């Protein structure tokens, strides 16, 4: 039985486009996004733009103050240090909980990342990176851990924008995550913890993960 596909709404389409441009670094942190200019540029009504911006504010990619245009969130060095202060114990807990298990969804996200064409937008790499780490967290089976990790997702994605120049060869990023998944899958717990710590130190410690 064939199920008809629903057309993508203008809000969804515009949100996907702006999200892509933000996560690729095309729209830099701190950039203002005036409603009128977006409406003219994309040929949509201002209410559509307003609703789209609300979606991206909710995701944490934009911030908005009263009587001012929405702006792309700027994650500072201090923000990143604090993000890692919170993220490290969550990643460690995840590694210990999953040691000795393979997570099929994480492997699938890695396979999709590896299969992206060389000229794929960085935003697509970010999407698969986030899907991989989210799959690990979900596999633990703790709703509270999942909620905590989700709160950090927006800042993590924005941090990954800065990682773009650190990985001109995406195969290196793929290899690093394959090593991480292999270490967690093989166990034991202490080896999985060391692999996660090394992964975070190499990425976020120098530039980001």
From TrEMBL:
UniProt xrefs under PROSITE patterns: HTH_GNTR
Record's keyword annotation contains DNA-binding: yes
Record-linked SMART domains: FCD (SM00895), HTH_GNTR (SM00345)
Presence of the UniProt keyword Magnesium in the record: no
Domain HTH gntR-type positions: 8-75
Gene3D superfamilies: GntR ligand-binding domain-like, Winged helix-like DNA-binding domain superfamily/Winged helix DNA-binding domain
Organism: Planomonospora corallina
Name assigned to this protein: GntR family transcriptional regulator
């Amino acid at each position: 039985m064939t199920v008809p596909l629903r057309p993508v709404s203008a809000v969804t389409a515009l949100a996907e486009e702006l999200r892509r441009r933000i996560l690729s670094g095309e729209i830099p942190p701190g950039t203002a996004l005036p409603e009128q200019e977006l409406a003219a540029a994309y040929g949509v009504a201002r209410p559509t733009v307003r609703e789209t911006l609300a979606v991206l504010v909710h995701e944490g990619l934009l911030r908005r103050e009263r009587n001012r245009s929405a702006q792309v969130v700027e994650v500072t060095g201090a923000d990143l240090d604090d993000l890692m202060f919170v993220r490290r114990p969550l990643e460690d807990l995840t590694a210990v909980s999953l040691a000795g298990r393979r997570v099929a969804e994480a492997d699938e996200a890695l396979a999709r990342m590896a299969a992206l064409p060389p000229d794929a937008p960085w935003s697509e790499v970010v999407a698969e990176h986030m899907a991989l780490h989210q799959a690990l967290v979900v596999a633990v089976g703790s709703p509270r851990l999942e909620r905590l990790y989700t709160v950090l997702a927006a800042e993590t994605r924005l941090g990954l924008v800065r990682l773009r120049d650190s990985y001109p060869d995406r195969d290196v990023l793929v290899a690093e995550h394959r090593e991480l998944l292999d270490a967690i899958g093989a166990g034991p717990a202490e080896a999985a913890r060391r692999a996660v710590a090394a992964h975070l130190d190499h990425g976020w410690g120098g530039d980001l993960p």
